[in-house]
Amino acid sequence: MKILAIATDNFEFYYEVVRELKQRDIPFVSLSPSDPIPPNVDVILTTEREAEAIDFQNVVPVDDDLRKGVRKALSMIKGKSSYQSMIVGIDPGTRPGIALVGDGKILETLHAGSPEKVKEKVEEFIEGYDFQRMTIRIGHGDKTNRNRTINSLEGLAVRIEIVNEEGTTKLTELPDIEAAKKIAFSEGKLAYGEYEVDATEGEMREMQRRSRIKSGEITISKDLAKKVVEGDLKMKEAIDEQKEKEEGESFNREE
């Protein structure tokens, strides 16, 4: 089996690449730029400076954009310089699960830090891969976070579909990733325009509960909880605002 090699004497670069490959569960071998290249190595990742000293056909010099370099190397390993179809499956949530599929094969799985951060991940895919067309498929559940995600993707020249995700959840360590994979392979209905984001009573109560856990003592107001659920305020900002309000009220009572 052909594998990837990291050829570098730059410890910092080596550490960052190893971390990226381990997150993707990609096997690799470690070399110095002056080492002989094993026959099972197909692609070499190295720094721009060290690339000049490596006499090998498939060398990927990496600049500041590490992930872009890794994606290029992995595409070469798979023998795919370009993809006809790229599909992004998204399981909506506060930390959406994402699965990237290229020509029917899963290329990457990851999480976004928030519904709005999904756009950054998609833009990285667009920059990191060569493809003919892209479709984004998002599960229909968790309406609030689903709509936040769709609205955040405005401006991207991609098709967006809403998929019925019933039966996608699995009892695994990463159920949102497994759901994202299934969503990617399921056709949906076209999404278009801006979607309404309106927090439910249950979502606001849950956010108030989380604020107590995170702060240890403070329960944010319903209005602040609504803003957090709808993505207009971060939890820390809401807690700080609630704390400031309560301290102000306490000061006024003492006067």
Structure, described:
With 255 residues, the protein is α/β, with parallel strands linked by helices. The chain folds into three domains: 3-77, Response regulator (Rossmann fold), CATH 3.40.50; 83-190, Nucleotidyltransferase, domain 5, CATH 3.30.420; 201-254. 40% of the residues lie in helices and 23% in strands. It contains nine helices and ten strands. A six-stranded mixed sheet has the order 7-6-5-8-9-10. Helix 7 (201-215) packs across helix 8 (222-229). The chain is globular and about 70 Å long. 32% of the residues are buried. The mean pLDDT is 89.
Condensed summary:
The chain has 9 helices and 10 strands. The chain is α/β, with parallel strands linked by helices. It is globular.
Task: Furnish the topology, listing elements before pairings.
Blueprint: E1 3-7, H1 11-23, E2 28-31, E3 41-47, H2 48-51, E4 59-62, H3 66-77, E5 83-91, E6 97-102, E7 105-111, H4 118-128, E8 131-139, H5 143-152, E9 159-163, H6 175-184, E10 189-190, H7 201-215, H8 222-229, H9 235-254
Parallel strand pairs: 1-2, 1-3, 3-4, 5-8, 8-9
Antiparallel strand pairs: 5-6, 6-7, 9-10
| Topology-level CATH name of the largest domain | Nucleotidyltransferase, domain 5
Order of helices and strands: EHEEHEHEEEHEHEHEHHH
How many extended strands?
10
- The neighbouring-strand order within the major sheet is 7-6-5-8-9-10
Question: Would you tell me the structural class of the helices and strands?
Answer: alpha/beta
Cα-atom Rg, whole angstroms?
23 Å
Q: Which regions are unreliable across 5 or more consecutive residues at pLDDT < 50?
A: none
> What number of structural domains do the residues give?
3
- Distance between the first and last residues' Cα: 77 Å
Q: What integer is the average pLDDT?
A: 89
Shape: globular
